[in-house]
Specification:
Length: 189
């Protein structure tokens, strides 16, 4: 009987941990999903710099938690040692990426959706002459922002013309002082 009491006592804690992990993953996937649906979100330079270290810490914790979960269940995964090793590397990187972006991006993104208004945030151009990729054509790369969230895609050639590294622009759109969903751009210089 004692064993069954311990099992039932541990179940709510396990369910709570599962819910927390699921919410954490959903929040971490929000920054990945937004660009897929055409929403270009840029965190403010100030927010990105203030949350960089906490974001790294959250990413490392998230990575370690996922790594432990994978290692505890690795015996259930089909495949050879190379497949399992590759899976461990991918899940470790994914855990870091998701954990960091929960702190750096998810909060400002949700806040901009719920309580956002028309804002203008200044940014510095790093590169304006790149042709981009299939998923991000004619990008304008910006300084001091997290990887994959450091560019605005589909910027018209006439706007990019004359912009050089160090040029200042304003991104206009729905957001807060923590970040903005880019709708239009304006030159400062």
């Amino acid at each position: 009987m004692d064993g069954s009491k311990e099992e039932t006592a541990g179940q709510p804690l396990g369910k709570l941990a599962g819910v927390v992990l699921a919410v954490w993953w959903l929040l971490g996937l929000l920054p990945v999903a937004a660009p897929m649906f055409g929403f270009a979100f840029l965190p403010s330079i100030e927010w990105a710099s203030k949350t960089n270290l906490p974001g790294i810490a959250a990413g490392l914790v998230s990575s370690v938690v996922l790594l432990l979960l994978v290692l505890l269940n690795i015996h259930r995964v089909k495949g050879g040692k190379a497949t399992k090793a590759w899976g461990v590397l991918v899940i470790t990187w994914l855990g870091y990426y998701i954990g960091k972006h929960v702190i750096v991006l998810a909060g400002p993104m949700i806040l901009a959706l719920i309580a956002g208004h028309q804002v203008e945030l200044p940014f510095t151009v790093v590169r304006a002459d790149d042709y981009g990729t299939r998923h991000c054509q004619d990008p304008l790369e910006l300084q001091g922002l997290p990887f994959l969230f450091d560019r605005v895609c589909g910027v018209a050639g006439d706007f990019r013309q004359g912009l050089a590294s160090g040029s200042r622009i304003v991104v206009i759109g729905r957001g807060t002082s923590l970040g903005v969903y880019a709708e239009s751009l304006r030159r400062i210089d």
